[in-house]
Structure formats: C-alpha cells, structure tokens
Amino acid sequence: MESRIEKDIVEALRRTGRAMGFSELCLLTGLNESSAASAVSSLSQKGLISVSTRETKFAKLTGEGEYHSRNGLPERRLVKLVLGNGGLMPLEEARKAYPDGSFFTIALGWLRRKGWGSIRAVNGVPYIVVEKEPPEGVDEAVVRTLASGPLDISLLNTEAVKLLSGRGIVRVEEKVERLVSLTEAGRLVELKVAVTQLTPELLRTGEWRNVELKPYDVTADVEPVYPGRLHPLTEFIKEVKEIFTAMGFTEAKGPLVESCFWNFDVLFTPQDHPAREMQDTFYLSHPSSTELGDRQLVERVRRTHEDGWETGSTGWGGEWSEEAAKRLVLRTHTTCVSVRYLYEHRDPPVKVFSVDRVFRNERVSFKSLAEFHQIEGIIMDRRVTLRDLKGVLTEFYKKLGLEKVQFWPSYFPYTEPSMNSVVYVPQAGRWLELCGMGVFRPEVTKPLGIDHPVLAWGGGLERLLMLKLGVTDIRVLYQNDLGWLRRVKLCP
Amino acid sequence: MPVIEVYPERLSRFLGIDVELKQLVEDLPWLATDIEDVGEGFVKIEYNPNRPDFSSHAGIARAYAGFLEIGLGYPEAFFSSPTISFHFDSRLRGIRGVLCSAVVRNIELAEEDLKEVINVQEVLHQGVGRNRRKVSIGIHDLDKIRPPVYYMAADPDAVSFKPLGTERRMTLGEVLKEVDKGLEYGHIIKGFDKYPVIVDSTGEVLSFPPIINSELTRLTPETRNLFIDVTALDEYYASRALNILLYVFKDMGGSIEAVKIIYDDGSEKTFPDFTPKTMSVEASYINSLLGENLSNAEIYRSFLKCRFSVVNDGSVFKVGIPPYRVDIMHNVDLVEEVAIGYGLWRLTPTYPGASTIGLKHPETMVQDKARLIMIGLGYTEVFNFLITNEDQNYRMVRRPVSERARLANSSSVELTMLRDSLLPGLIRNLSSNKHEKYPQRIFETGPVIRVSEEGSVVTRVSLAGVSAHSSASFSEAKSVVMSLLNNLCVEKALFEKSEDPLFTPGRVAKIVLNSSLLGVVGEVHPEVLELNGLENPAAGFEIDLTHFLEKYSKR
Hints:
The complex is a heterodimer of chains A (492) and B (555). Chain A has 492 residues and is an alpha+beta fold. Chain A folds into three domains: 4-62 and 140-191, Orthogonal Bundle (Arc Repressor Mutant, subunit A); 64-134, Winged helix-like DNA-binding domain superfamily/Winged helix DNA-binding domain (Arc Repressor Mutant, subunit A); 232-487, Bira Bifunctional Protein, Domain 2 (BirA Bifunctional Protein, domain 2), CATH 3.30.930.10. In chain A, 38% of the residues lie in helices and 24% in strands. Chain A has 20 helices and 19 strands. In chain A, the strands form five sheets. A seven-stranded mixed beta sheet of chain A has the order 10-14-15-19-18-17-16, with helices on both faces. A four-stranded antiparallel beta sheet of chain A has the order 1-7-2-6. Chain A has a three-stranded antiparallel beta sheet with strand order 3-5-4. In chain A, a hairpin with a 4-residue loop joins β17 (415-425) and β18. In chain A, α8 (138-146) packs across α9 (158-167) and α14 (295-307) runs antiparallel to α18 (442-448). The longest helix of chain A is centred in the middle third of the chain and has 15 residues, at 232-246. The radius of gyration of chain A is 53 Å and the shape is rod-shaped. Helix content of chain B is 29%, strand content 30%. In chain B, the strands form six sheets. In chain B, strands 4, 5, 6, 7, 10, 11, 12, 13, 14 and 15 form a ten-stranded mixed beta sheet that branches. A seven-stranded mixed beta sheet of chain B has the order 19-23-24-28-27-26-25, with helices on both faces. In chain B, strands 1-3-2 form a three-stranded antiparallel beta sheet. In chain B, β2 and β3 form a beta hairpin. The radius of gyration of chain B is 33 Å and the shape is elongated. Chain B has four domains: 3-68, 2-Layer Sandwich (Phenylalanyl-tRNA Synthetase, Chain B, domain 1), CATH 3.30.56.10; 79-271, Phenylalanyl-trna Synthetase, Chain B, domain 3 (Phenylalanyl-tRNA Synthetase, Chain B, domain 3), CATH 3.50.40.10; 277-345, Phenylalanyl-tRNA Synthetase, Chain B, domain 1; 362-553, 2-Layer Sandwich (BirA Bifunctional Protein, domain 2), CATH 3.30.930. Chains A and B meet through α12, β10, β12, β14 and α17 of A and α9, α11, α12, β19 and β21 of B.
C-alpha cells in the first residue's frame, strides 16, 4: 500500500508516460520538495520507480526578461501604441509617447525585423505604420512560460530561446537533476492508499475500497482495560449457590441479628458453653433482646437442656434461663438459618442451603476476620444416613473441582455422629480442612417437631477462596483495593 | 480447641508396646483428633473439648490401645477405703456447693509427669470447669497436711495464708486484689460475703478455691502422696473431672484411696465414684443412622474398641461408659462410638435418593440481577463489612448519628455498630483508592440494618453505587439509576427534590415508587469529599432492593 502522496506521484508519471525531472514532478503534482522527496525515496525502495540523474539546461528569465514578461516585449508595446493611434504615427511623436524611452530604439528595430510594421515618409516626415495586431510570437510564448519559473530548454522553442538569450531577456543555465521514471512494476501495480483509522467518511463514500488499512504490529503492548466486574467473593458465592441448586437444594435466609435461643439454645449449646461468652460472640446493646415467640417450643427447649425432655438425653442439668436465650447476638453460624427453615418445613424431604455472613468476636488478623461467610447444607428425610452424608459431600466437592476428599471423626455440640472433611485444593497444591458435618442430635430435632434424621454440613467460604485466588491474607478479600479488584482472577 | 504434643516413646510407656511417629500420624485422626503439626519426634494433635481425657499421654494411650486392639473393653480402676475425712461446711451450698476428693499414694512423679498432670488440670479447668467457675481442682502434697480436712466458708479478712508462688501471708481479700490468679478468677466468688477455703486440722490453709493453692502443699519432685480436692457447682462434672485425673495417676503407677466427705447433717459420701453409667441401644438404631448393616458381633467389638463394657441381649446392647468420659448423653453418642470403633473409613459413600427441586432465595435473584446491570454499566463490585462505627457510618459523610443497632462487647473501637447504609462504605472505598486510575465506578449490594421506632431490628437489602472522576455529576448518577430501574422493570419511579447531608444541597433527589421511598441519588457534598481526602467529584445513589423481592417470592 502506498501513501496518498506516493499514489499521486505514480499517477502523474503514468499520465505523462515518460521520465520526469524532480522539479517538474513537483510542479505537476503540486507537492512541496521535501514530501515529494520522501515519497520518491519510499517508492524507489519498493521498486515502483527508478531514479537516475541527468544534466539539463534550464532557461530562465533575466531581470530584464522579468520586466518584459510583466509589460510585454518592447516591440509589442510599440505595436499597441501605433495601433492606438490609428496605425499611422509620426516617428518622433511615437518616440515621445513610448512609455519607456530606453527601449524605443530596440522596439523599433524588432518591429521592422519581425515585419510587424514599417517606416514610411509622408511629406518628409517619417511615420510608423502598423497594419494589424500581430499574433503572439514564439519568443513571447517562451517569455510567458518562463514567467512561472525556469524550465528545461528541451521543452521550449530552441530558436526562440537562442533569440531571447541573444537579446538578454533569457539566460540559459546548466543543472544536474534527478530523473524519475516508472519501473515495470510501477506501471502495473494496483495502487491503494494506506490509512490508519477506518473513518465514517471512508465507509460512507465507499472510498474504503481504494485504501489499504495499514497493518499494525500485533505483538506490540496495548493499554490494559478493566471490566466492571463482580467481587471475587460474589463470583465464588454464586458458583457455590449454583452447585447447591443444581443438586436440588433450596436457599434459605434468616436474621443476621439473631436471638441466643435460635443461635445457641435450639442447637443444644449449653448456656455456659465457651462459644457463648462475650469474647467469642458479638452481643447487641441496642436492641439487646427480643421476644421468643412460640411458647411451646421454648418450653421443649428448656426441658431438653435441663433434663433431656422426651429426647432420650440426660440434658445438661442445671437451670435454663429464658432471659439468656432472649439476648440478641450477631449470628455466629448459619445453622440457625437452617433450623429455622426446618422448623417451618417439617415434612420430608427437605434440602436447604445457605451461603451467608456470620460473625465472631475475634481479633482481625491475616488469618481471621470478625465477619465472614459460611457454606451450609441440610438434608432431612425419612431415611438418610452417615454414609449418605459422605456421598453428598463427595458430590458437592466434586462440583467445586475438589476431587480428593477424606473424612475423619470429629465433634460438634449439635451433631452426632460428627465428621470433618479435608479436601485437596489443586490450585494451592495442598489439603484444606473444609467442612464439619454430622447428623443433628435428637436434642436439636425433637423439640422442633422433626422426627427424621437431619444431615448437616458447613464450613468457611473464605479459606477455600483464598487458596483458589492464591491469597495468603484473608483481609485482602475485604480491602476493596480497586487495583486488586480490577486484576484479580478466579480461575476454575 | 486444646492441643497436645504426643511423643511416641512416652505413649509407648502407657501402651506397653512400641509405636512409631509415622504410625501415630496415620492413626490418631481416626480417634477424632486433628493433626496440627508433625515435629521432630512428636506429633501435635488438636482434640475436641468433649474429650478432656485426651489431655495426657495416659488418656490417649487408653483410647489408642482400643484402636490397636491391644486393650479392649472397660479399663477398670480400683481404690482403697478412705482413711481421711473431709468436712463440708453447709454454708457453702449457695457459694460453691459441690466437693469431691481423693488421695493418691505411692506415686513418683518425674518432671514430665508433673508437667502433664498440670496440663490435665488446666484443660479440666478450661473446658469442663468453664474457666474454674463450674469446676476447679487442687492437687496437694498429702504429707504436708494434718487430716482431717475442712471445706469451709470464711470471712474474706479472717483467714490468711501464703499463696502458691508468693513470699508473704495474705488474707483472702488481699489475694483477690494482689495475686495474678486472684485478679483473674476473683469474679467467680466476689459477689459472696464469705469465700470458700480448705484448711487442715491445724487450721493451715491448703487452698482458696477456685483461686489458688497454698505454698504449704506445693508439689515437689520428692512428693509421693497426693491429696486432691475438687470444688464445683455441679457434682456430675466435678466427679468426672476427678475421675479423669485419677485415671492418669493410676496409669502413672499411683494407688487410689477414697476420701470420705462428711456433711454438717452427718451424712457422708465417698469419692471417687467409678460406677459406670450404663445405657442401652438397639442395633437397628445404629445401623439406620450409619447406613450400614453391621452384625451384632461387629457392633460388640466396636464398643470394646472404644473401651466400653458391653453386654448384648439379642439386638440390644447394654454398655457401661468409662468413668472418665463426659460426652455420652444420649444413645446417639453410642452410635458414634460404634462408627469410630468400626472405623469411619469403612463407611463408603452413598447418595440419598430424595428428589427435590432447587431454588435460589428471592433476595439472591434480585441481587444477582441488579449486579449484572451494574457491571454492564461499568461498575466494579466491592464487598464491605456490616460492622462499622459511628465515625465511618455518620461523621465521615456528614450524616447525623441516629437510631442504630449497637454492639455490646466489641473487642475493637472500630467495630461498634451495624451499618444502616451502604454509601458511607463506598465513600470510604474511594478514599482508600486515590492512587488508582480514574474514573472509578464502584457498587455494593447487601444488607443494611436499622432499628425501628418500636426498638426492633429491621434488615433491608440495599444497592448503592458511586462514580468518581473529574466530571462526575448528578445527571450521570441519575442516568445510572434510571437505567438500573428500567432494567429492574420499574417504570413509575419519581425523582423529587430532597435533602441528605451526604449530598450537595440542590443536587440530591429522593426516588419515590408508589408513594414509598425507594432511594436517594445525588452529588456527593464537597465537604464529604474533603473529609475523605478526595480530589475528584463523585455522584452516587442508594436504593432499597427489598421492594422488588415480592415478585420473585411467588416462584
């Protein structure tokens, strides 16, 4: 492809069909010398034109010649004067009337020599006689042509040049000039103009067909752009929720500010359990407590704590305090969400999940936060077993891309039997303790009016996400550093 | 959760056979412990608080012997009749009304044994003892004591002694004020007129439970006979704590001797109580919960491996629970014992057959939809904490401090309340991202918590966005809100002149839908920008997504 200038040059050469001097080329194409020179050099590199040098003789007007080119040759001016006088004018009168006396003699000489007029004596007085306006002579044409600049003499009438130079009107000079001609390729090549940006103008006019879109260095670096995007936590939470729904689980939501009753007591956590202490759980000072609602449920839970009620358990002993159960906390797990849901959906089968915020009154550090997310799943059915729990978790992990999983016995206050699971996280190349799980204790389910086994599992979301993202400081996830958010990747 | 470093040689001493570290690392998780770390010649395990008997090598060896099948069934322990009596002052009933005690004779405690005993005591104080409030234990050099011993209620200033680790005698009241342990645990008894104290027949103080022992009865490498007191609020846990400790001393080679407690009314009680608690469980119950089809013989052996005594009558198993176990409350706990005895790894996964249909919560559906629109509008999502403080939530955005959900016991001054709006968090995010390229457009969706006039907690799902750059304006924010609402299928929202100190007066509108307030949109007040060190204008909005939940709830 060629630039617009290159195209003009090639086209000018084609039009004239011959080699051309550089200055002539400029004249013809209306280009200034420097842009023409770089285009010529580029075309020559492409082999479209060849450049040779030649000596040329140039004719140019002398100072006197320029004067005449403005006013006409002296003889022409004399002719005009005489014709203006009716074609007959006494010589002396003409001499006086001639506008530039110094040229009168020359004018008269050339007038006679060119045969434009004659001198005739009438009554002894010499008169100049001109019969008609003579056409433009060749010499005059040369002067006119040179008025716009010097020219190669080969382009001019040789006789006239010789004559004019003899008269001191024209001077002939020698000059070495570059000569530009088309090569064979230059004659045949299809010319396209190169452009950088395709414009609406090019499209509208159809001119895009005649241009060539300049190729880019496709390996060069470009400015980065960042999409508006989801936070990686959201992205991951979405993924987990989709896995749950695909496995037939319904999402449950529950209060973030929860009573101790639902957060602890319903889950058979004794009222003097360390987890309920101030240094582990956020209590609210305003509002500080809530009414518990369903009296019968409250009584069943009280009895279960105190002596086991009808659950077959010994209970924790001691006296259960309803006041303590009424206190409001920021929920410490989402299990309270699940049991609230179970209480409202007592007919099997129930499969429910939540992925939501929980709170612990912990010092924030690189490995722990006061606020984080928990993944939780629950299955209640007529006949579900500990082996089923292993099966569901294995499937759940597989869908998260975690193929290797191991289960160990463990302990949780509200499940029995209880298990722990560790999964191998390929992105991190190591094992991670992920979900705790088990079958809800009868002390939990019976007071809620649930007569079937309930499988439950849950675990923190952030630690798995950290491994997937390669983040070692958990606080990074909540720092909202735009640079990080714009660049972080959650890869499968 | 409590941890312990387990050394194979030490464990071998109690097991009677040699074990290797590698084998321990493989086996111990099957006893419901977690491998925390494997060090030079030891494995550090984390065990669950329901098994305080794992606080010593002796205790772990007892369980591990069952796992290895070199020690099956109930571990018997014997004691001799009491020679020492312990008098209980009935005035202690409302203060610290439970007392257990025992004597251990002819024991030689090497330094590491002593260390381990102190660890067991500490674990019992922490867990079962609920930080000494519920149960606390004192261990004394018996030979420094002149029995009989008295557990009595004393005036804070009436009795004095030299507390363990101090140089001078102090009254009980002084101990609470001046000694570290007194400051730490004093709150347990401070509310009472009289404090519990244990003295011997010469009137010398042995212990000021649950605070500290006397220097007098300090254990030394020469100590051969031990006197143990357990004071508590609950006899079951006190007696179990004593049993756990006594089983350790027994395994270390000591002989147990009972102690007779004599009450003011003349009644007596003797400790320790090693009578096994019994429970019965059906094979079918076990199999249905596990999803297995274990034979009676398999169940029988599983119980033995967990160190239970067991008698089976057909498919009913009557088991005796070792007296050092505090975690067996219900039949279901026996099911877990069988699972552990049988080997949890032998339960292969199955998938439950219930056919159910999954669905996301309406809140999630609305939020996901709004998120998609926002990222389409070029906004990047941020995720802030719910817990904030008055400074961030109000003062930094010129809003007046108002009715809010407050925390009672935060460990940090930064965490004092729950956010009632998302915008302050977004402004703060802008403030911490000044070095990043502009324009900056961020949004968040999540719960905000308010307190109603009646004083109850109200949770709403909110969505807010801000745009910050050199030409951010009200019009831009309004365009975004209109596009958002339009894509949320809201057509009739009205924008009305409004006021909000976060925004510039005259450049803020409330958004009203069917005459209820949906949200606010405006140009951030220059003073808010200045307060947050921002040098680019910003405009933003916040709307309440809760209005849209209903449409999704019917699904």
